[in-house]
TrEMBL record:
Its cofactor is Mg(2+); Mn(2+). It comes from the Bacteria. This is CRISPR-associated endonuclease Cas1. The keyword Metal-binding applies. GO terms for biological process: defense response to virus; maintenance of CRISPR repeat elements. The lineage of its organism: Bacteria, Bacillati, Bacillota, Tissierellia, Tissierellales. It comes from Citroniella saccharovorans.
Length: 312
């Protein structure tokens, strides 16, 4: 029992599956507290109450204050919490994992620690992007070169489709406004995707730093996984936004809302879980990490919570 409120701590088996959760919510210049099993967000517009267990990722932007009791609830319900910079485009810190088992982490560490198995996983990642191509004999350098060509082609095609000038991926990490509209939209959209990938990696008890393609960064594996979906989700969204955006528009906000809309049915989040299982060679009948994986399946395809938290 919670010594302060008397509320019973939620058991893992009672938590909503991923298909029932909101992908992410971004909050800035607000105070976050807790009432029973919900967090409350207070800003100049008033207060909104959100069941904590229904949130996949809570992105905390500048000017946000959060109470200890709210953090306690968020941790207990397996919600990933990430502190981000202005407009949500810098990543500072994140919360704890949901999983109590380390078996997926052990699998990840074993695969990444051996050069042969690491390359095999990297090839699987690239084969998911190069539909119909045989990458079984390509080296890591060849894979990266092929991916670079593919992404440059996608940028070029979308630039023509949306009539948006494209001179390459350019941005200053300390000066968001210095970039072009499409580059700003890409930065904001990508950080939202990173947050969702981070939340799932964290919830399953895996390490965000043990990457197979990206290395040397505490979010290398997050970048590995996010790269599987950028060509489908964030890149087209960024060009679409840039094609109609005016100088007065808040590009970062438009990008976050667009990515959230694309993920609201939970299908992308479910795909990430299944893709992680595929990459880690998890068999259908393999019994492990049941406390976390059971929460992230697709037995319930309908979104039941009916939460509407709009960023106006």
């Amino acid at each position: 029992m919670d010594k302060i409120s008397g509320a019973k701590k939620t058991e893992l088996t009672e938590l909503p599956r991923i298909s029932d959760r909101v992908s992410f919510i971004y909050v800035e210049h607000a105070k976050i507290n807790r009432i029973d099993s919900a967090i409350t967000v207070l800003d100049y517009r008033g207060t909104v109450s959100i069941p904590a267990a229904m949130i996949g990722v809570l992105l905390l932007g500048p000017g946000t204050e959060i109470s200890h009791r709210a953090i306690e609830l968020i941790a207990d319900t397996g919600t990933c919490i990430i502190w981000v910079g202005e407009r949500g485009v810098r990543y500072y810190a994140s919360g704890r994992a949901l999983a109590h088992s380390t078996k997926l982490l052990e699998k990840q560490a074993k695969l990444v620690s051996n050069n042969r198995s690491r390359l095999e996983v990297a090839r699987k990642m690239y084969s998911m992007r190069f539909d119909g191509e045989d990458v079984s004999k390509l080296t890591m350098q060849q894979l990266r070169g092929r991916e670079g060509s593919r992404i440059r082609k996608i940028y070029r095609l979308l630039s023509e489709e949306y009539n948006v000038e494209w001179n390459g991926r350019e941005y200053k990490i300390d000066d968001f406004d210095d970039g072009t509209a499409v580059n700003k939209a890409l930065s904001a959209a990508n950080i939202s995707l990173y947050g969702v990938c981070q939340s799932i990696i964290c919830a399953l008890g895996m390490s965000s730093g043990l990457g197979f393609i990206h290395t040397g960064h505490d979010k290398s594996f997050v970048y590995d996984i996010a790269d599987l979906y950028k060509a489908e989700i964030t890149i087209p969204t960024a060009f679409q936004i840039a094609s109609s955006a005016k100088e007065t528009y808040d590009i970062a906000k438009l990008a976050r809302l667009a990515i959230r809309d694309k993920m609201k049915d939970g299908k992308i989040m479910l795909r990430i879980v299944k893709d992680l299982q595929y990459l880690m060679n998890v068999k259908e009948n393999e019994e492990f990490c049941i406390d976390a994986l059971d929460l992230w399946d697709d037995k319930n395809e309908n979104v039941k919570h009916g939460i509407s938290y709009k960023e106006d």
